[in-house]
Amino acid sequence: MRLAPLGYADLPRVAELERQLFAGDDPWSESVLRSELDHGHHYLGAYVDHSAERTLVGYAGISVVGTPRDAEASVHTIGVDPAWQGRGVGRALLEGLLAVADEFRAPVFLEVRTDNAPAIALYRAHGFTTIGLRRRYYQPSGADAFTMARPARVTEEAT
């Protein structure tokens, strides 16, 4: 598996995975995903090569607002094909997003379903803490979400 910037040609596959992964919570359409790329948000794809064919098995996106030292980042989505879950794809995608945030020395925020124990554990393992609860955040299911945050990572050479 390798990570690379997500391209417009990948959007039909991402929309397909969105429908599969988030069926009860208003999955993002291809046009919404296109808008995310149009706005310059950072999106990654996780790809595997089968014979001569490249297959997208996961995707993730983050936005960063501001400039280094006053930036803030927000994870928009992470999705992994169910057949590839539990193989480190989500971890690799999250680490790729966090690397973008770290370039800006930005704290990172995200929302996650309160019943998504594997994702919560992944985020905690990467320095996130729960800072709030958003009741009925996901629609139309009405599922609650935790708001989680990770402080900015500032290296010695960056100070």
- Rg, rounded, reads 16 Å
Low-pLDDT stretches:
none
CATH class: Alpha Beta
Order of strands across the biggest sheet?
1-2-3-4-5-7-6
Mean of all residue-level pLDDT scores: 93
InterPro entries: AcTrfase_RimI/Ard1, Acyl_CoA_acyltransferase, GNAT_dom, MshD_Acetyltransferase
Protein name: Ribosomal-protein-alanine N-acetyltransferase
GO molecular function, one term: protein-N-terminal-alanine acetyltransferase activity
Organism: Actinophytocola xanthii
What does this structure look like?
This protein is an alpha+beta fold. It has a single domain, classed as Gcn5-related N-acetyltransferase (GNAT) (Aminopeptidase). The chain is built from four helices and seven strands. The chain has a seven-stranded mixed sheet with strand order 1-2-3-4-5-7-6, with helices on both faces. α3 links the parallel β4 and β5. The radius of gyration is 16 Å and the shape is globular. The N and C termini lie far apart (34 Å). Pfam families: Acetyltransf_1. This is Ribosomal-protein-alanine N-acetyltransferase.
Task: State the main characteristics.
159 residues; Acyl_CoA_acyltransferase; 7-stranded mixed beta sheet; Aminopeptidase; MshD_Acetyltransferase; 4 helices; protein-N-terminal-alanine acetyltransferase activity; transferase; globular; AcTrfase_RimI/Ard1; alpha+beta
